[in-house]
Amino acid sequence: MPGGARRDGECSRRSSALLLALAPLFASCASTGAAPAIVRPLHTFSIVARDPETGQLGVAVQSHWFSVGTAVPWAEAGVGAVATQSFVNPAYGPDGLALMKKGVAAPEALAQLVARDPGEAVRQVAFVDAQGRVAAHTGKNCISAAGDHVGPGYSVQANMMENERVVPAMARAYEAAKGPLAERLLAALEAAQREGGDIRGQQAAALLVVRAQATGKVWEDRAVDLRVEDHPHAVEEIRRLYTVHEAYEHMNAGDLAIEKKDLARAMAEYGRAAELQPENLEIVFWSAFTLATNERLAEAVPLFQRVFAKEPRWVELLKRLPACELCSESQSKAILEKCGAK
Fold first, then answer.
1. Are 59 and 48 in contact (CB under 8 A)?
2. CA angle 172, 175, 176 (to 5 degrees)
3. What digits encode the pLDDT tens for the residues 96-153?
4. How do the domains of the chain map onto residue ranges?
5. What residues pair up with 237 in beta bridges, in sequence order?
6. Please, are residues 223 and 61 in contact by the beta-carbon 8 Å criterion?
7. Fold of 41-232
8. What angle do CA 153, 154, 155 make, to 5 degrees?
9. Angstrom distance (rounded) from CA 138 to CA 122
């Protein structure tokens, strides 16, 4: 449970209180024959949104609950995005996406699922569809401070917050932010945390952004898919990971440029990656390798020397590359000789 280890008596009291609070929910399930609702207290703050310029759809979330990214955020390219939280029922994710995929507008899709959920009073859920239609539900028994705000193409929602300022701060930050959708989603999380955030503190976060149109290849449809499973400063950590992600996106773009024999573009992309992650030896090494294998060895040598000085095992890696036909034996030897490496 969140908050670290507790004595057995404390755990027992907490569990008893939780079951007492949810007794009406289970009674309703028994009387109607419905399956018992899933009860996992993912009290949290989140945002779902559609970028009106790119059509991307995304979710960002933070909670004092381990691995929150496995239950709260759901998104499908060309369909919609869902955040399901509070005493969470993860089924709102796949079920909501299935309805929106059939053409059901987000508000109607959410209304249908809430109407048949005996535990709706403890649920907090938000939907946005590929047309930018939005809906949110905050059950009357969500733990305060709890609330949501629906704006143009987005919804922010939170429960068990330190104060009532969290939700308005998220809305303001999202609307004021510039740049890619992922940046704007992170701005909302950061604003929530500045206002106090989850009353229990931080533990896990997730950021999921999908493209406007589905390709049929899930790995291509997900533009950003990052998780922080357990960290005392989860919002800061998800921001750090996003920066790393962006650096590697530039590296990927550089690799594609090399395939097209556009060295100038490749080096520009690698340079941008290095700006974002100046201490990342992976980025420095492959930037140097690209220069060296494109008749620019003199420019590559200082970069190689920097890498080899910090981690000698990169020398051994370089020696293995000719066997994979990534470079010739003569190129590998020339690099090692110029760098004074063995």
1. yes
2. 80
3. 999 999 999 999 999 999 999 999 999 999 999 999 999 999 999 999 999 999 999 9
4. 41-232, 279-342
5. none
6. no
7. Glutamine Phosphoribosylpyrophosphate, subunit 1, domain 1 (3.60.20)
8. 145
9. 8
